Amino acid sequence: MAQQLKNITKRSEDFAKWYTDVVKNSGLIDYGPAKGTMIIKPYGFAIWELIQKYFDSEFKKYEVENVYFPLLIPASLFNKEKDHIEGFAPETFTVTKIGDKQLEEDLYIRPTSEVLLATYFSKVVKSYRDLPLIYNQWVNVLRGEKTTRPFLRTSEFLWQEGHTVHETKDEAFLMTKNILEVYRKVVSEKLLLPVITGEKTVHERFAGAEATFTIESLMHDGQALQCGTSHYLGNNFAKAFEIKYQGRDSNWHEAFSTSWGVSTRLMGAIIMTHSDDSGLVLPSSIAPIEVQIIIVKETDEVNKAAEEIRKQLSHTYRVKIDKSDKSFGFKMSEAEIKGIPVRIEVGPRDLESKIVVISRRDTKEKTQVELKNVEKQVREMISEYDKNIYNMALQNRQMRTFEASSLKEYIDVLNEKQGFVLVPFCGEMSCEADIKAKTQTTSRCIPDGVDQSKGKCFNCGKESNLKVYFARSY
Amino acid sequence: MAQQLKNITKRSEDFAKWYTDVVKNSGLIDYGPAKGTMIIKPYGFAIWELIQKYFDSEFKKYEVENVYFPLLIPASLFNKEKDHIEGFAPETFTVTKIGDKQLEEDLYIRPTSEVLLATYFSKVVKSYRDLPLIYNQWVNVLRGEKTTRPFLRTSEFLWQEGHTVHETKDEAFLMTKNILEVYRKVVSEKLLLPVITGEKTVHERFAGAEATFTIESLMHDGQALQCGTSHYLGNNFAKAFEIKYQGRDSNWHEAFSTSWGVSTRLMGAIIMTHSDDSGLVLPSSIAPIEVQIIIVKETDEVNKAAEEIRKQLSHTYRVKIDKSDKSFGFKMSEAEIKGIPVRIEVGPRDLESKIVVISRRDTKEKTQVELKNVEKQVREMISEYDKNIYNMALQNRQMRTFEASSLKEYIDVLNEKQGFVLVPFCGEMSCEADIKAKTQTTSRCIPDGVDQSKGKCFNCGKESNLKVYFARSY
């Protein structure tokens, strides 16, 4: 890190540039040499590791087991499920040789691994006794992207992909919904992103799925971002890959499967929801450093007090004393730009009065706190901090949630405000393609908990019994 | 898992077939559809996760930070370091197109990531203040292999690759050695593989390194296996990629770098060292289940007692009650084949006398234990178990460590016995290539702690001041 912190474009001036500035200046990533790839730097990766930890521990409650499936998929396998290959073929990276030697068959780098899992399931599943299989892997996947942006859209990204196979439709469907609930829980409670849950329309469904469920959140600029999807695959893959089992009735049946994933896109969602003109703002649960102790001026006493505070807080929090040889001011700015929830300034003069100064990243409030109350104050402050950033995000979404009943109204809302727009919609593929062509927007979901009463489709005017959120999205 | 456990070939009859049988029947892996790839199943992956955990926590002591660098390396970058490209070019998987679209420049799938890290370091390192950078990543890498075997040699494998850059030669060298010590510690203390540490000869050095250090272990059949390597890269990569910093003297200097790695090969080493004719034998620290509770015959009382034991032991151990509907005998065999260190049989008759039967996987001893002593007994048993399997491995190595002073003696030892053979060696590239051609064996290392006195090279007869272990190896 250079000794000079760079300026961040104002969020209100140019949201896209602000985003890139925050991502780069907070030390999360750098660009990789191959087009559309990124290097996740230590600070960024530490956040990702914390995110992984929360999901993994929730997955365990549903008996999810971690596995590793190969990166490369022989072309012949990939071509078995028609919708799936159509969806992914144009963007798959293809290996055609090893060294100078041309391969007999092309190998695709996984854009997702349904076909690998389906092939495996078809080999090992013989009886209802072998079911369910509930697998997950944390891996890299690649998809060629024309325009890329760190975390949001990159040619390579990291994700978890869950793949399960079940005896009954109901069981597979329940799995799909249980995972959606895991996603909702972790994303709203740990990442502090208020999300809407719902089902995708046919147009936005995963290639090869019978139903796709989603959690959707709204960024500060009013554009939506899909934060995680859980797919009920019915027996589409079981048919294409012959995943059959002998049931309790001794007959052979096709199995039912699911798949689901969240990715490093979540990092983008966190940034675009919580951060501000001073840089990153991180929910405490995923902040690699929750409390940074910064020394105003080194003396033996100051060092000793700082170390004592560190020790005391480190039972509960990830705490660090910044021991670099940078100036006090630089350290304060750096901690701010990196979104560290709480900073504690320890200085010789304050120490004489047995106090330190604690500041919150979100409100920038500074509080003088007696030494003996530091732990209590930090606990309260972090709790308030988390509540506040969640509520600000929720408020933003509420302010930016609209209804429209005609395409004109819809376009007016979009042009004026940006946000989720609830519309009556016929749900048809062709109508949605038409809307997308006209407005460059897509449906986000058929939301849970919204009355799906009858009406007329806001675009084609046909009879409709769906209420759907449409939005501009990342 | 099928209801029938398959037979395992006797280790003494056919070591290679025994190995494959153990790997497959214990449920560690299956084969992937692309040539030379493997699927790491839940049981295998759980072991790998534990291995990762131990290394990661040791790395942290040396301020190693985890990162993620892209999978793909543009061909032009890869060609910058001459030795490195020569070493890896013939085996790199090459992406030439995305969908139907031919790429302008070939992209290599990383066989290792030195060039990516070096490119990054050259961009961000400007001043001595930016140093050191101590990075690690846990990722997949690919290398085309002609003959493959699960874990030991696969076209894709998982590993950690550390990459560091330093101000001084001494600091980089110390890093290299510190990591070697981490490797020795984790591999000997957690994986219970007795290892020899030492330096590689010029012939066996990593492509692009100035010195390669290694930990080597000996498998049950007397063949050696390299378990981890730590490379001092000098400023080879700094020169090729222009990693320069402004020093404390205000002049520009080339930086010094290191790289180091351990991989899923370690899983192969564990199997070939500890396992036996009944299947896998796992050191307790990496056993996903350390204690399996198996119910002889279900009654309310038995279930209750089993649950109590599980609860009690789960404070200290990874414990599981096998609740599947398989037979008692099947469950016992399965726990054995999977290498679970300790099994506890809970049955109604034993319970009447307030006892359970505990059995050890290594010695197959069964002990009747009073309910109140279960925890104590398990603790002692696991401690004895770990000691025993380490000592058996150590004994095997000691029995298979030889000396030779001529090529004839060397070949005689190899033909008769297999093992590490300590020989006086000139150290020259051409001489070692000659030995390899004649014997299909390679040098393993110039061992630490062995007196490097003068002598005559066992092959060419030239003056030599090295004592080197040669062996057949995996």
Automatic annotation (TrEMBL), chains A, B:
SUPFAM superfamilies, A to Z: C-terminal domain of ProRS, Class II aaRS ABD-related, Class II aaRS and biotin synthetases
GO biological process: prolyl-tRNA aminoacylation
Signal sequence residues: none
InterPro entries xrefs: aa-tRNA-synt_IIb, aa-tRNA-synth_II, aa-tRNA-synth_II/BPL/LPL, Anticodon-bd, Anticodon-bd_dom_sf, Pro-tRNA-ligase_IIa, Pro-tRNA-ligase_IIa_arc-type, Pro-tRNA_ligase_II_C
Cellular component per GO, a single term: cytoplasm
Residue ranges occupied by any Aminoacyl-transfer RNA synthetases class-II family profile domain in the UniProt entry: 36-283
Key word ATP-binding present: yes
Compartments it resides in: Cytoplasm
Keywords noted in UniProt: Aminoacyl-tRNA synthetase, ATP-binding, Cytoplasm, Ligase, Nucleotide-binding, Protein biosynthesis
The protein's Enzyme Commission number: 6.1.1.15
Entry GO MF terms: ATP binding; proline-tRNA ligase activity
Catalysed reactions listed for this entry: tRNA(Pro) + L-proline + ATP = L-prolyl-tRNA(Pro) + AMP + diphosphate
Entry text on domains: Consists of three domains: the N-terminal catalytic domain, the anticodon-binding domain and the C-terminal extension.
HAMAP family in alphabetical order: Pro_tRNA_synth_type3
PANTHER family xrefs: BIFUNCTIONAL GLUTAMATE_PROLINE--TRNA LIGASE, PROLYL-TRNA SYNTHETASE
Family: Belongs to the class-II aminoacyl-tRNA synthetase family. ProS type 3 subfamily.
Assembly mode: Homodimer.
Function: Catalyzes the attachment of proline to tRNA(Pro) in a two-step reaction: proline is first activated by ATP to form Pro-AMP and then transferred to the acceptor end of tRNA(Pro).
Name the record gives this protein: Proline--tRNA ligase
